[in-house]
Specification:
The protein is built from five helices and six strands. It is α/β, with parallel strands linked by helices.
Length: 202
């Protein structure tokens, strides 16, 4: 049986922003379909005394990752724009810590640990275990999970609460294997019914 989120853990919700959801500037297929499951995980985290942290891309205009500067992506998640906002259906608690990443115009970072205060926040609270969900599996989720492992955290990625940005067959599977190789636990099949059951078990 897989472990469940407990007091002292952190649920890290990665980049559930409008631009990464369908119809966004860098829309991911079914990117919004994972939000109900993430909301249930947020409920579970709160009920069990775990912390909730949300990361977001928070790019300045003309960020180095944009195609206009030779990067691979269209402009997305520009600071202060609608596309950079969290999706309206995401139910973050009022006390959720928000971590903004890739904020320097000339440096990119997929990881929520890259030039942010995230590790400091976790160390301050004595956190040892992370549960990660969000977008996108093959970029920001993967890089965040691997960085977390390299920093010594126990890391669980909730596979059914994430989606890959690339439509290439196998990209998501390769990302999962890359994370497994780094020592990340990949949690499969933790849908609404199993999670609701665990909530009712106290």
């Amino acid at each position: 049986m897989s472990p469940r989120i407990e007091s002292g853990d952190v649920l890290l919700v990665v980049d559930i922003q409008n631009d990464f959801c369908p119809a966004g500037a860098l829309g991911i297929a079914e990117g919004d379909a994972i939000i109900p499951l993430i909301n249930r995980w947020i409920e579970s985290a709160i009920s069990r005394g775990a912390h909730v942290i949300a990361s977001r891309d928070w790019h300045p205009s003309h960020h180095i990752s944009f195609k206009e500067r030779g990067g691979p992506w269209p402009p997305h998640c520009v600071q202060g724009t609608k596309g950079a906002e969290f999706h309206a259906d995401l139910r973050l608690p009022a006390n959720a810590v928000i971590v903004s990443k890739a904020t320097h115009p000339d440096r990119d970072s997929y990881s929520a640990f890259g030039e942010t205060t995230l590790n400091d926040e976790l160390q301050r609270d004595g956190v040892r275990r992370l549960w990660i969900a969000g977008l996108a599996l093959d970029y920001c989720v993967k890089e965040t999970a691997i960085d977390a492992r390299n920093l010594g955290y126990e890391v669980h990625v909730i596979a059914d609460a994430t989606r890959a940005v690339n439509a290439q067959p196998g990209d998501g599977d390769r990302a999962l294997q890359h994370m497994r190789n780094a020592g990340v636990f990949i949690e499969q099949g933790l849908g609404l019914v199993p999670l609701a059951t665990s909530l009712n078990q106290g």
